[in-house]
Amino acid sequence: MGAAASEVAPLKGYSVESVSQTLDALIRFEALGIPSLSFALDSLLLQQKFPITKGIISTSRLINSPHQAANYSAVKLKIKNRSIDEILTLVDGIDPKVRIRLDANCGFNLSEALKIARELPAGRIEYIEEPTKTFDELIQFSLNSPIPIAVDEHLRSQPLVDILNLNNVATWVVKPTLTGSLGKIFSLANRAKKQGIPITLSSSFESPIGLMTIAHLAHVLKLDHPQGLGTDHSLTQGGCIDLAQFHRIAADCSFCL
């Protein structure tokens, strides 16, 4: 058995499990109902089946100002609690060659979200992620927005049949630490592929080990567009993650969680 490494990283306020519940489950080695632990344990097995040797995963960077977009082909801007003027200024300051992804984190009502979408330069924006507060509003937004949507939070909270009825969808954003088992992630990826929708793997503010684990999964899934892993800028310099680094990290950990 080769070296493997993964991370159990429940995110307070987003994960369904608490840290104490996760630790208790880890001691019992029982991951049922604990998504962060399910993903971590499954990732160890995935690394044994598909050993990490090399590979480059393109990433998008989470930024707060235009200058942080340098050397990236795609960036994400958080726009919740920002005015339309602030958003327009940020977008205008980013190199036109850079793809811009906006993330509203369910922050606007329908009229606010549509006003923003209609005032933005649609050709500059790849998608707006979770623009509305409710799923019913998201349905209406998807029917009326000039800019495509990305589904994140609602992908975990709504029945999949409802997600499939959305219009103008650019991508499903899958956060492995919050989603859980690889079986569930692969099932989402396969269903999205049948719909002609790419999935984008996204971090939940994991450490470099967690980010590398998700990058390895992206490599296995053959995802060739920028993944949402640019939250550790020392790791993702130049807009990519080099999986050869993970091979060295895993070897140093020598089969660790």
Summarize the SSE layout with pairings.
Elements: H1 19-28, H2 35-49, E1 56-63, E2 74-78, H3 84-92, E3 99-103, H4 110-119, E4 125-129, H5 135-144, E5 149-151, H6 153-157, H7 160-163, E6 169-174, H8 176-179, H9 182-194, E7 199-201, H10 208-220, E8 227-230, E9 240-242, H11 243-253
Parallel strand pairs: 1-2, 1-8, 2-3, 3-4, 4-5, 5-6, 6-7
Antiparallel strand pairs: 1-9
Name the features.
257 residues, alpha/beta, TIM Barrel, 9-stranded mixed β-sheet, 9 strands, 40% helix
Write up this protein.
It is built from 11 helices and 9 strands. The protein starts with 18 loop residues before the first helix and ends with a helix. The C terminus is likely disordered.
Summary of the model, kept short:
This protein is globular.
Q: If helices are DSSP runs of H or I spanning 4 or more residues, what is the number of helices?
A: 11
Known CATH architecture: Alpha-Beta Barrel
Alpha-carbon Rg, integer: 18 Å
Question: Quick one: biggest sheet?
Answer: 9 strands, mixed
CA-based shape: globular
Q: What's the mean pLDDT score?
A: 89
**Cα distance, first to last residue?**
15 Å
